[in-house]
């Protein structure tokens, strides 16, 4: 659909939708376009660029050929990314708070304590602390149940 700005002999400006530019020509020649104010059929295009309707493609003679492609997802803006990041940080903080409340902090002694618990050398309890990647791997290989969680580093008081 094309929207034309039209103007009549009496300088009345009005807008009208047409199926296409050629449809406008046909209607104009058959004097089917009239001014809504003075009803004269002496109308012409106002000196202005035509606008294309975003939703009117179904009535256009030349329909775009591609119909089965998925609509492109809108590119994520950096603003969306920031929101997502903030949400992730909040989730980590929440998880962290729950762990800190329920588990005992054994700090760097984590691999040692985890082993002791695993082998029944100390009270079975929930602990958390630090372990290097290698230490964590060793524990897993030994069958010690541990899980890595994302952790927000904070200053020690
Ligand atoms: Zn008029």
Strand-helix topology:
Blueprint: E1 2-8, E2 13-18, H1 21-29, E3 43-45, E4 51-52, H2 78-102, E5 104-107, H3 110-118, E6 127-129, H4 133-141
Parallel strand pairs: 5-6
Antiparallel strand pairs: 1-2, 1-3, 1-4
Description:
With 157 residues, the protein is an alpha+beta fold. It has 2 domains: 58 residues, no CATH class; 64 residues, no CATH class. Helices cover 33% and strands 16% of the residues. The protein has 4 helices and 6 strands. Strands 1, 2, 3 and 4 form a 4-stranded antiparallel sheet that branches. Helix 3 links the parallel strand 5 and strand 6. The radius of gyration is 36 Å and the shape is rod-shaped. About 10% of the residues have low confidence. The structure holds zinc ion (ZN). Zinc ion binds next to loops.
Order of helices and strands: EEHEEHEHEH
List the total number of helices. 4
What characteristic shape results from the CA principal axes? Answer: rod-shaped
Instruction: Determine the N-to-C terminus distance.
Output: 68 Å
State which percent range the strand residues make up: 15-25%
Rg, please? 36 Å
Report the count of strand segments.
6
Bound molecules: zinc ion
Please summarize the sheet with the most strands: 4 strands, antiparallel
Low-pLDDT regions: 56-71
Helix content: 25-40%
Average of pLDDT: 79
Which structural class best describes the helix and strand composition?
alpha+beta
Q: Tally the structural domains.
A: 2
Keywords:
157 residues, alpha+beta, 2 domains, two-stranded parallel ribbon, 16% strand, binds zinc ion
Quick structural gist:
The protein has 157 residues and is of the alpha+beta class. The chain has 4 helices and 6 strands; from the N terminus they run ββαββαβαβα. The protein has 2 domains: 2-59, no CATH class; 78-141, no CATH class.
